[in-house]
């Protein structure tokens, strides 16, 4: 399963997805709102004067150019672990299910599906005539291969059908004590069943995993032999709206419309994902070098984009959050009092306002969107309080030494913070953290590196403190990143009580009872603080007004990649 927390991102514009429509209010704004002190702009804001559009964009009659951050080049639905790689992957691949604008599962490659009364059997029927981009048929054998590969002992990607979806027999297959997965049953070329060991309220979302071609990706596959598949990450073959053409590392990825797409060939022939950065993307939108990009939302950026006259804006609360991760296995961070002290002792509001001025982000203390049905506020708001932070450090045994640096058992309290660059959040965070923690008697040093290097350090457990962000999906379970055995738990956090609550929450199907369980989850997390939670912000997509079809198609839940096939150029 692709975890609820689908990607680690290392830029200020990292998380995506929230309950409700664009802007969280379901409104379409026909004219730009004032960007003054009355509050942040939200909703779908149409361009004020499309006639100002530039020739570089208008002359591109058959090509859509979308700005994107740096890529890892992993274009495979079982392995993509970055939101930016995922955009490309989702343009090339499709799953049995998709997510609609309200965050609910809807049919895609599957014509229909049903869940048994006991919640343990999922039956899917594929549409007629499905094909991969090379014209070969897409059948339930391909579906079975996709889910089987993710349960192989050599699989090391973010999916976790074994521990979270709990497909029957998947663990035995991974351990090599079974040669097939008991819970995957191919009925015929169009019908397939999945049987799980126990009911799971979030499991239906797991079946939106994009499908791989067994003929292409499984040609060399034998149980226990999967590493070869990584050689195909940069040579994807899928069944989505577009086909892969070329990856020019550090520059762009070129795609072309797939004539075999089940919803029909995309109306725009060519799609280019062009690499941009925090410092270039607004200018590239203004000059017409790109048609669309996600831009950090703040008053200045909104004003600049609206000032161009020909750019539509879509602004909505993100279903995700920025956080400071801590290696909780490190003796400095094992005590919850220390984690609380580091949270009280950091002026998070100052950092958030510096990056998102004008009310475009809010400080948070729980790992959930405030718009989610499951959200529950913890009792501690951890407002900046140097005295309280100092007291907690004293209680944890970290005393101020003669040189002004705290120490315990002969060891100095020194933090090595690894930071991606360029990154607007880190630019604001580092000086504030250095100053705040110095006052507490903590030495804070930052080491900067590019985003890919940081992700590798974090995933390998080599970073003791870092800033990143999680983007959420409609699933609300946190097992993947905060569960003791979570596939994306990169900080080593473990809390047996929390593990129990995660299991309880997944087994409960009654919405109100689930809400009560997750209220306990967020209360516990708020107290124990596996992370230093930073903010929930707004997302903003800027789209050239010549691109038609995006209005009401980009929502917190529904990604733009689902609508690519229907877009047109004016």
From TrEMBL:
Q: What are the protein's UniProt keywords?
A: Signal
Membrane topology recorded in Swiss-Prot or TrEMBL: Lipid-anchor
Recorded GO terms, molecular function?
peptide transmembrane transporter activity
Instruction: Note down the stretches annotated as region Disordered.
Output: 25-44
Signal is among the record's keywords? yes
Q: State what protein this is by name.
A: ABC transporter substrate-binding protein
Gene Ontology biological process: peptide transport
User: Per the similarity annotation, which family is this?
Assistant: Belongs to the bacterial solute-binding protein 5 family.
Task: Give start-end of the signal peptide.
Answer: 1-20
